[in-house]
What we know:
By secondary structure, the chain is of the alpha+beta class. It folds into two domains: 6-98, Alpha-Beta Plaits, CATH 3.30.70; 115-181, no CATH class. The chain is built from six helices and four strands; from the N terminus they run βαββααβααα. The chain starts with 5 loop residues before the first strand and ends with a helix.
Amino acid sequence: MENQGASVVITHHILxxxxxxxxxxxxxxxxxxxxxxxxIDLQIVRPIPHLTFVYTVIIRFDTIENLKYWMKSEDRKxxxxxxxxxxxxxxxxxxxxxLDFLFNAENEGNKVPVRWKQFLVTWSxxxxxxxxxxxxxxPFLRFLKVPSNHYFDGLIISGIIVFLMVFVVMPNYTKLIxxxxxx
Length: 183
């Protein structure tokens, strides 16, 4: 089996006034997560104070097996049980392998398109961005007097492309071609 890595997106709806207790709980679970076998990285998207109450935690592991092992581990079960009184809803998560998270399947249950369709769709979205973004970003960077540096330019351009892919292009593109994609 190809080693593609795996991600889990966890959402916790926290009860009003329980945010500080949840933050303390995060301080407890994050170090344990980071020491799990195959751990790559972790991101926490915190709610907007006085507006939203959902925490989103994205954890990446090197293999889906290591991710599933962590999600079913006794350490995690114990810590989730400890945090349950803080949750408005139960611990909710979705496990995705590779780039599956780009193919938002909200309306398709947990269906994920076949890999060759994922490849074609991702390629067809990245190719025009890889032509267009440097044409727009490089003159802007030079206008801002940022010296030309191949590595820094590449960092900025790839960051813009990934941002657009995840937040703009793929959510809309996959809706547009949904019938073909999930057929």
